[in-house]
């Protein structure tokens, strides 16, 4: 791969600290090493790690930590570089190559990895360069590297660690969970977490370098297989579950447009599966757009996968719904009514303001990602689930909306004319299981639309009316059903009600006409009204 020109320039100007001849520069670099806490690290160790010193045109010293992707000599230019430069009284950090336009730093290698050989069967992972140097110094040469993203999970490093039989993870105590998460990806059976309260560099600076070896021998705890845990492992989680139960029930957001839901569900929580059903034409997608918009506006990062409606129509509904509160508040001043009937935002009279609302919608707190369904027409169920999972990981998605299960399975079996109804049911079960796995492993809340079986129009929907097998109702944490019935006062009209058929964590179910959904056509919005008082009369 071509080297970054900035890295080439800095590296060619930098010197091994052994080779610094100028007395003033020697003093400057020593002061910087003391400030960084690596003055106890021998120059021989720094040299083995190819650590160099760099003096810029303003005579400001910097320590250069190189990153490599494999064994190499001292003269070879590294793929990546981390600089800590002393600027006045403060320290400034720079990484090269620099982050891209999205702020993501490209993988450019690992500090210390150039010393790995085929004979090495064990390695120590640390979260920064100072700890790696201290481990090497304190153990007399045990291979230790610094992860380029620190304690953050970085899957780019996984291929580089495949050949090691034993992997030690020495993370700061506050990041022990991060160490366990990484160990799960590395195969927990070969991983040991060092649970020492002090970091290696702290032990070295406190003249306790022997304790580094001791910690590796005596304080390294083997990580169990992912499926097995003891009471000791879950103790803190159990304590947190009891003490923080209210906060966990509240979740990461509360509904504002549909604040009535907070009374029954308590909040929007990660790692859950919500299912929405309702007859054809009942307004499932319209409600779902506003439901997800409510959370998106509060900063919940959302992935919307519409397999039935075009993306443009989904976004049109959400934009009109987004503008609805302002539109209704300023109805009279804007003169947006004709003969007492509100004129919708999407009418020609409002076209000059559409651009303004698009700008505002783009600046919502949460990121909205739309799945381009056309790209998945020839994909299998597993491939579609994998694409969703990858998008969750790369974009940090917190809410996945899928509309709907039957259309998705139909898309996946489009080219197979011999697919039977039983096979489609099995495909649905398989996809629901994959969604449950994604929600559990990666933490997003998944909302899934499922069409009910064909029933009489007067029959209330129940859990038994879901299309496919019972898998979707078993896996779901929450089940919403939109019920529709004729208005007794005006037989030409219908009234809609939101039932909560399953509520695993909130416990409160609604199986009667308590939550009425009043639709406002001009803004594509619903208003949830509590009719429980009328039920109790």
Automatic annotation (TrEMBL):
<dbReference type="InterPro" id="IPR027417">
    <property type="entry name" value="P-loop_NTPase"/>
</dbReference>
<feature type="domain" description="SF4 helicase">
    <location>
        <begin position="247"/>
        <end position="533"/>
    </location>
</feature>
<dbReference type="GO" id="GO:0005524">
    <property type="term" value="F:ATP binding"/>
</dbReference>
<dbReference type="GO" id="GO:0006264">
    <property type="term" value="P:mitochondrial DNA replication"/>
</dbReference>
<dbReference type="Pfam" id="PF13481">
    <property type="entry name" value="AAA_25"/>
</dbReference>
<dbReference type="GO" id="GO:0003697">
    <property type="term" value="F:single-stranded DNA binding"/>
</dbReference>
<dbReference type="InterPro" id="IPR007694">
    <property type="entry name" value="DNA_helicase_DnaB-like_C"/>
</dbReference>
<dbReference type="InterPro" id="IPR027032">
    <property type="entry name" value="Twinkle-like"/>
</dbReference>
<dbReference type="GO" id="GO:0005739">
    <property type="term" value="C:mitochondrion"/>
</dbReference>
<dbReference type="GO" id="GO:0043139">
    <property type="term" value="F:5'-3' DNA helicase activity"/>
</dbReference>
<protein>
    <submittedName>
        <fullName>SF4 helicase domain-containing protein</fullName>
    </submittedName>
</protein>
